[in-house]
Design a protein that fits this description.
This protein has about 180 residues and is an all-alpha fold. The chain has five helices and no strands.
Length: about 180
């Protein structure tokens, strides 16, 4: 009876080991749909993709390509090409640097444009706020036209007063304000 349980334990352990191996294989396998998505690199492409390769060396491998030996450079390019072909490079800029930089410039221009538009709006609102603060409260009562009319009437009354003292004939319509209804 004990032997029977031991046999089942062995079988279940073997099944677990097989499933673990399958998981490892499936995780390490290259996704066939993505392989070569950006093209296939070979050793002869080293000079065509030199910018991307040098950037990858500097950022990912932390190697200065200018002081790195040529023979080692070819080995590193083989690693780069393998990552390129399997689409496992850490960032899209390593696939097409010029395209990525153009995209970044476009994003920068859009961000600057949005920022300038936001500042324009804030400048306009600031000007309106400034005008409202410094224009002062409007006086209740008469408008500017009403005040000018009152000045004219006061002048006419003064002139009529001088004429009366001098003994001249007075004009009854002068110095009087007439209300008009609108």
């Amino acid at each position: 009876m004990i032997a029977f349980f031991m046999l089942q334990d062995k079988k279940s352990r073997k099944k677990k080991e097989k499933s673990r191996k399958k998981e490892k294989k499936s995780k390490s396998a290259v996704n066939q749909q993505k392989y070569g998505k950006y093209g296939i690199l070979v050793d002869s492409d080293m000079f065509n993709k030199q910018q991307e390769f040098y950037l990858w060396l500097q950022e990912v491998k932390k190697i200065n390509p200018e002081i790195f030996p040529r023979s080692e450079m070819k080995k590193m390019f083989a690693i780069f090409a393998e990552d390129w072909n399997t689409v496992t490079l850490p960032h899209k800029k390593f696939y097409d640097l010029e395209k990525w930089e153009a995209k970044q410039r476009k994003k920068g221009r859009l961000k600057a444009l949005k920022k300038s538009q936001k500042q324009l709006v804030s400048i306009e609102s600031d000007e309106l706020r400034h005008k409202s603060l410094h224009s002062g409260p409007t006086r209740p009562g008469m408008s500017k036209d009403d005040l000018l009319e009152m000045q004219r009437i006061m002048r006419e009354r003064q002139q009529e007063g001088y004429k009366k003292k001098a003994g001249w004939e007075l004009d009854e319509t002068k110095g009087v304000r007439y209300q008009t209804t609108n």
